[in-house]
Structure formats: structure tokens, C-alpha cells
């Protein structure tokens, strides 16, 4: 899938992903993956359904889904470069991803966010319906 709109390209072609650019953003600018090693980013991309946003040949956005394409999907590492925010690119990216064939008919879609609840609520995401039925293991500061 590749769509061009207003000079921006949205694509699920993993071959287009600039792993160096994604790594730079995640390791230096994100709050959730500070100092993440390049090898970890490479492995996560190769094992996920990834989407890129491009202006000309420059990667300006990214998102990936960890999914079995049958029952669940976990959305992570979503970003748009700072200078391109406010243009509706996150909404367009979310719209395209939510209709991707590999993300249809799943039982559950997850994500984690600190500050983008409003964006994700527009696409049907809500707080956990039964948090008492969910558990997690969190390894704090794993990339230090």
C-alpha cells in the first residue's frame, strides 16, 4: 500500500524505511525508547508491520504494529518529526493503518501513550475495559 497526499507519501513498504532516521528519533527524541540500540530498532522493524511517512525521500514519520494478523495488534513507536506536526499527518497515518488488510478482524488492538489519548480516541481506542485482567512486566531503563 502506498498513498501520496499533499506531497507526502504513506507506505507500508519496509524497504523504504530509513532505519537510521527511525533509530535517531527513537533513541534521541522519544520518551519511550531513549537510548535504544540500533540493533534493537532493526530487529523490531524486521518483526513488525511497519508504516512510514515520507516527504520527498526523507522519512518524517513512522509507526509499527506487533501483530499475528489474526487476533491481536499492538501499536508502537508512532511519531511525526516535530517540524511536520500539526498538518494532520498522524490522523492520516492512523486512518490508513486501521484499514490495512493485516489489521482487519482482530479481537484486540493495544497501544500505550503518555500524551496522545485524543488522537487515538478518534480511532476507537479507549482505556482498558478490564485492567484487572491484564498484566505486564516492565523493565525500567533497559537502554541505559
TrEMBL record:
- Indicate yes or no for the key word Transferase: yes
Can you name this protein? Acetyltransferase (GNAT) domain-containing protein
Stretches assigned to the N-acetyltransferase domain: 9-144
Origin organism of this chain? Pedobacter insulae
Classification via Pfam families: Acetyltransf_7
Q: Under the GO molecular function aspect, what terms does this record hold?
A: acyltransferase activity, transferring groups other than amino-acyl groups
Q: Which InterPro entries match?
A: Acetyltransferase_Butenolide (IPR053144), Acyl_CoA_acyltransferase (IPR016181), GNAT_dom (IPR000182)
Keyword field: Transferase
